[in-house]
Design brief:
This protein is of the alpha/beta class. Helix content is 44%, strand content 25%. The protein has a seven-stranded mixed β-sheet with strand order 3-2-1-4-5-7-6. β1, α3 and β2 form a beta-alpha-beta unit. The longest helix is centred in the last third of the chain and has 19 residues. It is globular and about 60 Å long. The structure holds S-adenosylmethionine. The site of S-adenosylmethionine (SAM) has 19 residues, from loops.
Length: 263
């Protein structure tokens, strides 16, 4: 297991973690949307990452198939889930070729994955294939807003573009729209609901470190040499703009769930 990939997975985990009460609200919303009665529900999560959605569900007793193609993410997931692993199976695989039989799970959970897959229709077809009749596709996503974060990311983008490299933003939201259209074309009826809103504190340094560590997908297509050239300039700019980088700012966050039941 490459140490760098586990280190990245822990950094991702720290950046995206939910406060316990938020994680609980998300698990409750998923459980309610699933609505399975009388038999033991089996959940499959595609791109499970380090398990921030999975772990509260596992703790509530769901049988969980945790699929990811990145062994570093699965390793951190495995360490975090130690002690509650009884009903969990880790699957190192590609979401576009799920190694499970047709109609074998009650719920497929997908959070922040579609935008990473240019050929997402393959993964969507696979998700629908493995769902039982009456099963539910559960797509979730976070939104976050803070003026400080926006200013830092704008400056980052300016510096990258000054190096002649284009930056694609807004892909995540666009992709959610494309998936919704695809589901409707199949005659399905996705239902979207904001589950929870909360506030968090983060330091300016943490916001810069997230860019430095390339934890956001929009940073990952920038060539390494460009990334290394621009980052010192970003830190210097931030120091001049904000002064104390250990100052906290408030981040408005929310989680939305879209549930689509199979016929
Ligand atoms: N769902 C988790 C969450 O919300 O915290 C993780 C989201 S993270 C942005 C995307 C995850 O999808 C990563 O763990 C990555 O390794 C995984 N992933 C990316 N492409 C994948 C693929 N083709 N098949 C399976 N997993 C994939």
């Amino acid at each position: 297991m490459p140490k760098a990939s586990v280190r990245m997975a822990y950094a991702y985990d720290r950046l995206r973690a939910y406060p316990p009460e938020v994680a609980g609200r998300i698990a409750t919303a998923i459980g309610n949307a699933l609505g399975v009665r009388g038999e033991e529900a089996v959940l499959l999560e595609l791109g499970v990452g380090t398990g921030r959605i999975a772990l509260p569900l596992i703790a509530r007793g769901y049988r969980y198939l945790a699929l990811d193609k990145d062994p570093g993410m699965l390793e951190v997931f495995r360490q975090k889930a130690a002690g509650v692993m009884r009903k969990v199976r880790l699957i190192e695989a590609d979401a576009r070729a799920i190694p499970l039989p047709d109609e074998s799970v009650h719920g497929v959970i997908v959070v922040h994955l579609w935008h990473l897959l240019p050929d997402w229709p393959k993964a969507l077809a696979e998700a629908l294939r493995v769902l039982k009749p009456g099963g539910v596709l559960l797509e979730g996503w976070d939104e976050m807003e803070a003026e400080e974060e926006r200013l830092i990311q704008e400056r980052w983008r300016f510096l990258v573009e000054a190096e002649g490299v284009g930056v694609v933003r807004g892909l995540h939201r666009r992709r959610l729209g494309e998936v919704e259209e695809a589901l409707k074309r199949l005659g399905l009826r996705p239902k979207t609901k904001q589950v929870v809103q909360w506030r968090e504190e983060r330091t300016l340094r943490q916001a810069l470190e997230a860019l430095e560590e390339r934890l956001y997908s929009f940073t990952q297509l920038v060539p390494e040499e460009v990334h290394e050239r621009i980052m010192p300039g970003l830190w210097t700019w931030a120091q001049g703009e904000f002064g104390d980088l250990d100052r906290f700012f408030t981040l408005e966050r929310s989680f939305t769930l879209r549930a689509t039941r199979m016929a």
